[in-house]
Amino acid sequence: MKRIIFMGTPDFAVPVLDALIEASYEVVLVVSQPDRPKGRKRELTAPPVKDAALKYNIPVFQPEKLVDEYETLLTYEADIIVTAAYGQLLPKALLEYPPFECINVHASLLPELRGGAPIHYAILEGKTETGISIMYMAEKLDAGDIISQEKVTIGKTDHVGIMHDRLSEVGANLLIETLPSIFARTNKRIVQNEAKVSFAPNISREQEQINWNNPHDQVYNQIRGLHPWPVAYTVFAGSRMKIWWGEPTDEIFTGKKPGEIVAVEGETAFIVACGNEKGVRIIEVQPAGKKRMAVSEFLRGNPEQVQVGDLLE
Question: Residue 168's pLDDT is what?
Answer without folding.
Answer: 98
